[in-house]
From TrEMBL:
Catalytic activity: ATP + H2O = ADP + phosphate + H(+)
Pfam families named among the record's database cross-references: AAA_11 (PF13086), AAA_12 (PF13087), MOV-10_beta-barrel (PF21634)
Protein name (database record): RNA helicase
PANTHER family linked: CANCER/TESTIS ANTIGEN 55, CANCER_TESTIS ANTIGEN 55
Keyword NADP among record annotations: no
Domain of life the protein comes from: Eukaryota
Keyword list, A-Z: ATP-binding, Coiled coil, Cytoplasm, Helicase, Hydrolase, Nucleotide-binding, RNA-binding, RNA-mediated gene silencing
Record region (Disordered): 137-157
GO molecular function, one term: ATP binding
Coiled-coil intervals: 651-683
Keyword Cytoplasm belongs to the record: yes
Listed EC numbers: 3.6.4.13
Length: 742
């Protein structure tokens, strides 16, 4: 993993250098200096809070003093920076060169966790067999007592797969009585902790109450095991805040019991009000370590290593959304617990949803994109076996509990992803009054089927040098559906009830321009990654890509939305009551997953819009009606709207592109003149060399040999100079990757 982490670090350094700028002005903004960053809204790549910025005077070249600042807030088109107070006081709108560097803290902690992993042992990292341990001493709600030896599995012994345990334990009294049977079983298994230190997996598909189950398990451990100390982590701050908020809402936790450990640079404005009293940072580590529950991100948990705590200080680690963290990131909190043989590791997540976000294609290719949870569940010990574990969801109940009751979505929206990813095991357990509110809606092609696939054969476009795509025709159709949903008088929707998923930043920008002008600026529009873990009553998806000739290339080069089954799974499982897909059916039909969704909609008469392609899968024999006159008229209107929309939102950009093109033409002409001069000088040099060589070398091959040798020597010198320069800039990377010095 060390080499993969270095590859990721190098790529992040390369990416963020794209933001470097020369001779720019900073603008005062309250206590900060604001810097406008071109391309920031498209996230290519993203600048994050905590990234370092170096500014220097462009007029002094190498002798220029450099000032160091940090990114404190990232806005839509600009970042807010903070430097030393003296720099702020003396700054008077001078021009400065700007150089961005990213925050290495996360990767440094991952390196530390990888080095520490040797102490975790085979039972944690590569479990091959299960060794049962007796449950820990617990205190029942009726008073202090100890689990009797006769009711436990004494000592350590091998556990044959599929063998039923005859352990007798009293029923656990739950704090949340609404848990279903699978959730109760998971809480009981976590409390008994017989598989420790081998990780226990809570397999939670979307909407099955994974976090609710995890919080209940933490409360049971906290109350019934008095000596326990818990580390509860998640890859993101929002997920960690949710855990802390749920624990607070239980009424069983006080500020003396729990700490919410935050990074230095985190703004407290983003923290939920209920969580603020629990918040601490690295300055309070001693106080944090005294709490029985510490909630943080996986990365921030690395702060606790600075205390050099004794093994066994923390007894339990719970990691929510473990599938979204890289394995080294996941090992940061695990190392605090699993180095002790009695430590328990609980991973909660879904291996069929999106994994960690990486920048380096090489790191992805060689496995850094696979989470610890996903790797474990593929090991033979965790294998699914419908014969041996028939009564336990096909998984060994000592190691895995799979939640199957979905409390989020309408059965129509749940059926297909359940069949495609979860062995058709998901059961719709949602509130009918909530999920059926759009049944009978006037715009549904099939009245009792709250799913719409609206076919649009638009045009995908790009602007200037931007690599991001947008589709004006789809953007306009998104706005039309948004207006129809928000104006539905039978079921009034709030802004938080509706969301728009689209894979390209430029499409997000275009949709945002349209809805802001219509007073719908509070509707969230974002990528699939931004919606993972969230839900909306109504979800609208715009897939953007419409060039049917480019689809094969998209799939081949894995350009995102079409070719990623996990992204497909997450996108179609966000909706509770209504899902609307706006896409080109001729494009999506070339991907296996999207084609199944298209066929599902056609089979259930939920398709509308453009003419359909020839489908070749399970519903290929269905007869499709030809587009009606009204549909053709609608298509003509949409094409006109397409042109109008593009003209409105892109006029300014086109003018800028024309100016840039003129400047480029002038530059090219100047470069051509310089090349002509250089070629003339080179020809004169070669003529002189030919004359010289003919006089000195009578051998016919002399001149050729001289020129070839000279060329190879020059190329070798250039290559050596480049390597030496690279070594000077990033010598640590080269040595750590095993390349040594040049």
């Amino acid at each position: 993993f060390s080499a993969l982490l270095h590859l990721e670090e190098i790529q992040e350094e390369i990416d963020i250098c794209q933001y470097d700028m020369e001779r720019v002005v900073l603008r005062p903004y309250n206590d900060f200096l604001s810097l406008e960053v071109p391309g920031l809204s498209e996230g290519r790549p993203s600048v994050l809070v905590g990234d370092r910025v170096i500014v220097s005077d462009p007029g002094m070249l190498s002798r220029s003093p450099q000032y160091e600042g940090y990114v404190h807030e990232v806005l839509r088109e600009e970042v807010l920076l903070k430097f030393h107070s003296e720099f702020h006081a003396n700054y008077a709108n001078e021009l400065y060169n700007i150089r961005f560097t990213f925050n290495r803290t996360m990767l440094r902690r991952c390196h530390q966790a990888v080095e520490f992993a040797a102490k975790l042992g085979e039972q944690v990292l590569f479990p091959c067999s299960l060794q049962l341990k007796p449950p820990p001493r617990t205190v029942p709600s009726g008073g202090p007592s100890v689990v009797s030896p006769s009711s436990t599995q004494q000592g350590i012994r091998k556990c044959p797969l599929g063998r039923k345990q005859k352990t007798k334990t009293a029923a656990v009294k739950l704090f949340n009585e609404k848990l279903n049977d699978r959730q109760r079983a998971a809480v009981n298994r976590i409390l008994k902790a017989q598989c420790r230190p081998t990780p226990y997996i809570l397999f939670g598909p979307p909407g099955t109450g994974k976090t609710v189950t995890l919080v209940e398990a933490m409360l049971q451990v906290f109350v019934k095991i008095p000596h326990c100390r818990i580390v509860a982590c998640a890859p993101s701050n929002s997920a960690a805040d949710l855990i802390a908020e749920r624990l607070h809402q239980s009424g069983l936790i006080s500020t003396a019991d729990m700490a919410r450990l935050n990074a230095y640079q985190r703004s407290m404005e983003a923290v939920p009000q209920a969580v603020l009293p629990y918040c601490m940072n690295a300055d309070d580590l001693r106080s944090v370590a005294q709490r029985r529950i510490v909630v943080s991100t996986c990365s921030s948990a690395g702060n606790l290593y600075a205390l050099a705590l004794r093994p066994g200080h923390f007894t339990h680690v719970f990691i929510d959304e473990a599938g979204q963290a890289t394995e080294p990131e996941c090992l940061i909190p695990i190392g605090l617990v699993a180095c002790h043989t009695s430590g328990q590791v609980v991973l909660a997540g879904d291996p069929f949803q999106l994994g960690p976000v990486l920048q380096s294609n090489h790191a992805k290719h060689f496995g850094l994109c696979m989470s610890f949870l996903e790797r474990l569940i593929q090991r033979p010990l965790y294998d699914r076996d419908e014969v041996k574990f028939k009564g336990h969801g096909a998984y060994d109940p000592l190691l895995v509990t799979k939640l199957v009751e979905n409390y989020r979505s309408h059965p129509v929206l749940l059926s297909l992803p359940s069949q495609m990813f979860y062995h058709s095991e998901l059961k719709a357990s949602s509130d009918p009054a909530l999920v059926e509110c759009f049944c009978g809606w006037s715009l549904l092609p099939s009245p009792q089927f709250p799913l719409i696939f609206h076919g649009v054969r638009g045009v995908d476009l790009r602007e200037g040098n931007s690599p991001s795509w947008f589709n004006p025709m789809e953007a306009l159709q998104v706005v039309r559906y948004l207006q129809a949903v928000m104006s539905n008088t039978q079921h009034l929707m709030s802004w938080d009830d509706v969301g728009v998923i689209t894979p390209y930043r430029k499409q997000v920008e275009k949709i945002r321009v349209l809805i802001d002008g219509l007073g719908m600026e509070k509707v969230k529009v974002g990528s699939v990654e931004e919606f993972q873990g969230q839900e909306r009553k109504v979800m609208i998806i715009s897939t953007v890509r419409s060039n049917e000739q480019l689809v094969d290339g998209d799939v081949r080069h894995n350009l995102g939305f079409l070719s990623n089954p996990k992204r497909f799974n997450v996108s179609v499982m966000r909706a509770m009551s209504l899902l609307i897909i706006i896409a080109n059916p001729h494009v999506l039909a070339q991907d296996a997953n999207w084609c199944q969704l298209l066929e599902y909609c056609v089979h259930n008469e939920a398709y509308t819009g453009a003419d359909l392609p020839l489908l070749t899968h399970s519903y290929k024999d269905l007869d499709y009606d030809a587009p009606s006159v009204e549909m053709n008229a609608c298509q003509e209107q949409m094409l006109q709207a397409d042109s109008l929309l593009y003209a409105c939102v892109a006029t300014k950009e086109k003018e800028e592109v024309l100016v840039e093109e003129k400047e480029e033409v002038v530059e090219e002409q100047e470069e051509e003149k310089e090349e002509v001069v250089e070629e003339q000088e080179e020809d004169e040099f070669i003529d002189d060399m030919n004359t010289s060589c003919e006089e000195e070398e009578k051998d016919e091959g002399g001149f050729d040999y001289f020129i070839v040798e000279h060329t190879e020597h020059t190329e070798h010198d250039n290559y050596t100079n480049e390597i030496v320069e690279m070594n000077n800039q990033s010598g640590d990377y080269m040595r750590l990757l095993g390349m040594g010095s040049i």
